[in-house]
Amino acid sequence: MSSVKIDPVIPPDSAFPRYRPVADHALLVELGEAIDPALYERIWQLDAALAAHPIEGVTETVPAYASLLIDFDPVVTDHQRIKQAVERLLRESGDKRAAGTLREMLVCYESPFAPDLDAVASATGLDPEAVIATHLAGSYRVVMYGFVPGFAYLAGTPEVLRLPRKPTPQRGIPAGSVLIAGPQCLVTTLTMPTGWWIIGRSPTAILAEDSDQPFLFDVGDSVRFKRINRRDFDIAARRG
Hints:
about 240 residues, alpha+beta, Gyrase A, domain 2, 2 domains, 7-stranded mixed β-sheet, 5 helices
């Protein structure tokens, strides 16, 4: 039987990895504190190693930018056993880049789909066409899922477009909106508020009625945006 009364194993010099117990049924493995490609590649490598070498009692893993949450059955195992298994996998895992599938997202940058395009252009010193070209040139990876279904956070927004979030969020932003803030980009899947910059809209379906593959993306996938005009957007949207 598991117990939450364990040493969280945080080294005194704050070195990584850190292991933090989460209630009696999960362990958070932290490998860093930044949005850094080297970090999330290591998270994906660990996640892949756990999938290839299952630990008894583990029920789910949830990768993020610099951490991996490992959920387990506390009747079967405990925090210390999970920690020991993870330490072994970290020693044995290499530095091979995590494999992923290339996904294409259509995006229309025309009005009314890009209400913040001019503001982004002004803030970055680019003209709107240069903002679009720069966004299209980004190298994006799916790093984690957020708080709504299919809400995938993409790392890789080009440096020149990395603006802080707006001071005041805006409500009622439609599904399919293409947003940027800091080094991240995402495409909304529900109507929702946001303080990110809205530079386009995609008709590409992210949610699917497939229990085995409910979302277009998997963590670790690469994403390429492809520009379309309003006419092609309307055609693609009708097709669903």
